[in-house]
Design goal:
The chain has about 130 residues and is of the alpha+beta class. The protein has one domain: Aspartate Aminotransferase, domain 1, CATH 3.90.1150. The chain has a six-stranded antiparallel β-sheet. A hairpin with a 2-residue loop joins strand 1 and strand 2.
């Protein structure tokens, strides 16, 4: 697989766009990165859950490795382009995309709850002061 094949798979996903992050291409949905292409053109990265990462590494040890450090522990998974087939990359990329979409929805819901709690606290304070 070539970098352009990786790119095409990423951009087939709904609302996915290509951007740039730290001088290399990234792929985002709703502002969240779900995949990147390494500047060397030999590797890509998909951001999956740590459990999904373990599964991919177990099933395809020559293809997937954790990214270094904390990124890898969080699920960022390096993909050796010369070793991956389109179906396997498509599966990993779809899981990464789904995680990014879900993260945005969860974060948005948490923000709404947090704003409601803050509004309620302010309202309570206002009632106390008026007494």
């Amino acid at each position: 697989m070539k970098p352009n094949d990786f790119r095409k798979i990423a951009l087939r996903l709904q609302d996915a766009i290509e951007g740039e992050h730290m001088a290399h291409p990234d792929f985002r949905v709703n502002g969240r990165i779900f995949a990147t292409l390494h500047p060397d053109g030999q590797q890509g990265m998909v951001k999956v859950t740590p459990d999904q990462q373990r599964d991919f590494i177990h099933q395809h040890p020559a293809t997937f490795t954790p990214a270094s450090g904390a990124w890898g522990r969080q699920g960022c998974t390096m993909v050796l382009l010369s070793a991956v087939d389109e179906e396997t990359l498509g599966e990993a990329m779809t899981l990464a995309w789904q995680l990014a979409v879900t993260s945005v929805k969860v974060k948005s819901q948490k923000s709404k709850v947090k704003r409601k709690v803050e509004t309620d606290k302010l309202a309570k304070r206002g009632r106390r002061r008026r007494r």
